[in-house]
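Contributing new records

If you add data, match the layout below exactly. Sequence lines come first and carry their own label; structure lines follow with theirs. Keep one chain per record. Anything else will be rejected by the validation script.
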Amino acid sequence: MLKKIQRKKRIKLAQGKPNIKVGSFWIKNVIYIFVAFVFAVFLSYKIFDGSSTFDYLLKIKDQNSQIVELTDQLDKLNLEIELLEISLNKKDEDLQKLEEKNNDLQEEILFYEKIVGKRR
């Protein structure tokens, strides 16, 4: 008889749904976990010197902004150099044309001097 009762209890326990009582206990656990998390973050900030890490990140950001400014200035200077090269090339072409005209005029002067004679 005792075995039958124990067997019925085992079957009843295996078939039934577990009954878990939820009260205000989980709120305390959440608060404890939150406090432990905040403490761990604060402790790791102090141990690993978090202020220097933030300073390093800010320094990286500043240097990135400086890089952007310098690349903009470099682009402007490259554009100015290209414009100067173009203007120098045009001036060189004009100078060559003027030299050719000058040579032609000197040849004509020499030709007329040979024909007429030198005037002094």
